[in-house]
Amino acid sequence: MQSILPLPVQGIKPGTSTGQIFWHNESSERTIESYSPADGQLIARVYTSTRSDYDKVIETAQAAFQDWRRWPAPKRGEIVRQMGDQFRIYKKELGTLVSYEMGKSLQEGLGEVQEIIDICDFAVGLSRQLYGLTMHSERPSHRMYEQWHPLGVVGIISAFNFPVAVWSWNAMIAWVCGDVCVWKPSEKTPLTALACQQIIQDVLRNNEVPEGVSCLISGSRETGEWLSRDPRVALVSATGSTRMGKAVGSAVAERMGRSLLELGGNNAIIVSQHADIDIAIPAIVFGAVGTAGQRCTTTRRLIIHESIYEEVKQRLARAYQQLRIGNPLDEVNHVGPLIDQQAVQSYLAAVDEIRSQGGRFVVQPGVVEGDGFESGCYVKPCIAEAENHWPVVQRETFAPILYVMKYRTLEEAIGLQNGVPQGLSSSIFTLNMREAEQFLSVAGSDCGIANVNIGTSGAEIGGAFGGEKETGGGRESGSDAWKAYMRRQTNTINYGTTLPLAQGIKFDL
């Protein structure tokens, strides 16, 4: 890790990182200890930000915004382009750190860094396409148009499961829009955030970017509450559980701020009798066990047509027997650990609840023990026959538990798919055009993402990412998600010699 973390990993204090790394020297001795779920080893102790640290960071960010917003958007895009080049250089090192600190497979860790690179490329093009509209005025010799201006300070609260990619979805877009960013990473993965700041520091310094454009604060729930309640923070983008999102959303709304919420998912795949089962099986397995079930887009429910129910169930059971569980840095393994012991306990509690509600396991659950599993964070991906209305099925358990159920009609299947509080990602496997179109119609999936013949996870950065209902309604990444980071302004110019009023109103003096 030395190539991306030349600073000592013991006792690093986060602050702002632009023209230089800016580590505050306050008196706080509180630290976050980062343990790898792969082997249980202590990776680093990272100092948490005090309230004094936090206020200084926000003040520095506010000052930077006054300058940064005046930089032409294509010039801001050039900074992001150079960042993308830096992440290309350090893709292997950062991807390895992501895998080791978070526990996802090395391939997924590398893929997460690739997402940073991809969003940098997207943002560079976007920097020349922050379009407004021109409208025809009802008044003669008048022109109307709209333009978009940066918001100011954007707070980013990210989750452990995608410790660097989700930050980049927000930060790269916010930066080309002219905003400055204050990032509060998950307390479970603080080191990857420090690594990202290290990687971009030379770009920011060499281009004389104002100190405070990229800021980092470290801490627990209290630190996120500072961001949420701070009127100096124009937008808070928060990724995490629905419970956390409700707290953030209400705190931001109370001060009339803006929030962008990416919260829980309870995603389903419908497998039609017209499906190509050969491509459905690997999509289901990857969706259900990738990142050990710790993705917001993880496949948690499988809704199978009754005519092929037994066949699909048996093929899945055979596929699960081929899964290799172990150290995520070993590329022969498919499934790594859960993030910590608390996550393991949540998994076990869900298993007990499934049994108490009448569920039957097709593939048995359990904790993996023995040599190489000393961290105690490895669990067995499992499959349970269940009913959609059961409380345990209605909730999101962040673990590799897949619920299977059968249906008769497509309308019934769509009803099951939509019959949960969350609305992030959904999928149908079918070769029947009518079924596919019905699933994507207004009477079909109620999720923010709806796929045909691909799984629920693995979204590309070109499309807007996000969901409905308790998933929060936010949109990040591609398409026109950039509008969340800017404020719209409608302008009217009178270039005539009279003052006609709108709606034909007369006001003669």
From TrEMBL:
One of its GO terms (molecular function) is aldehyde dehydrogenase (NAD+) activity. Its EC number is 1.2.1.3. Keywords: NAD, Oxidoreductase. The keyword NAD applies. Residues 23-490 form the Aldehyde dehydrogenase domain. Homotetramer. This is aldehyde dehydrogenase (NAD(+)). InterPro entries: Ald_DH/histidinol_DH, Ald_DH_C, Ald_DH_CS_GLU, Ald_DH_N, Aldehyde_DH_dom, ALDH7A1-like. Belongs to the aldehyde dehydrogenase family.
